[in-house]
Amino acid sequence: MKAVRISQTGGPDVIRFEEVAAPQAGAGEIVIRQRAIGVNFIDTYHRTGLYPIPTPSGLGLEGAGEVIEVGAGVTRFKVGDRAGFCSGPIGAYAEMHAVPAARAVTIPDGVSDDIAAASMLKGMTARYLLKRTYPLKAGEFAIVHAAAGGVGQIAVQWAAHIGAVVIAVVGSAAKGEIARTLGANHVIDTSKEDIVKRVREITNGEGAHVSYDSVGKDTFQASLDSLRPLGMFVSFGNASGAAPPFDPGILAQKGSLFFTRPTLFTYTRTPELLQETADDLFEGIAKGIVKIAPPTRYALADAAQAHRDLEARKTTGSLVLVP
Ligand code: NDP
Fold it and tell me: Which of 200, 235, 258, 316 is 20 to 30 Å from the Cα of 295, by its Cα?
């Protein structure tokens, strides 16, 4: 079968499209013939080495398709079922992938493979951030960074459904329009506006209750300065580079703030937590609380281009690779 491989970390040019041995289902595993593969920012961190992985390696954590082989001891899936996964193992950028059944989820009939691959990792992230990390309440001010991106578009819709006042932070006017359409109450365009000044205006000087910050380095200070006393800084990504190390005393100075650096894996660490999170997302999609825009599709062979576009801030919504 064909698969994406890297033999060393680096820029998008390290991505190779190669013939490799087809996977076989080990004990407890299923093999999925993938029809759509999710592209996530974390894949670029694996490629660059920001999150170190041993090389040579495959790339990608997320995919959806049909179960074609079931390993010993697997009872939750049978051949012919539809299944998806979004927490690896790394190597999803391939025609087929072997996945522990405990890390796979069933996909309901109303959700296509494209939509599943576009929404599982990003939507489950939005779900745990809004419902578990800082359970958002109606009327609270919530800052959503990269609001027109993959996670961002889902988070904006879900936060608006909860009834929060959504302050969407985006990098261009066009992205601001997307965020508004999805339900953002306020848009801050970082190409021409100052985040802290605008958040203070919007919140009558008090600051936001929470900042869901996926941008990292470039927005670290702005998130700290935009929160009200006892506000929650949720630092969950590094799109502009890793957030800097800091003195915990800064949280005291800024108003006894809370700070967390959560991961999807912790919030879905058991099969039960994983399926519960997936079910809530799929229910949200079925009820129209969260509308997943058709993802931008790239051929699996064009994975390097998908990475270039994602890193250049050219994309909105989700990207999928199609084998
Ligand atoms: P996005 O579609 O959100 O793409 C990243 C966006 O970040 C860009 O479109 C851009 O939007 C913004 N951005 C701001 N500064 C930069 C920069 N210097 N370089 C590149 N992008 C920048 O990606 P995903 O939805 O896949 O992921 C969003 C983030 O969430 C990532 O940081 C990812 O690592 C994180 N994440 C964390 C998880 C967790 O559990 N901790 C799980 C899933 C994702 P704009 O132009 O509007 O600023």
Answer: 235
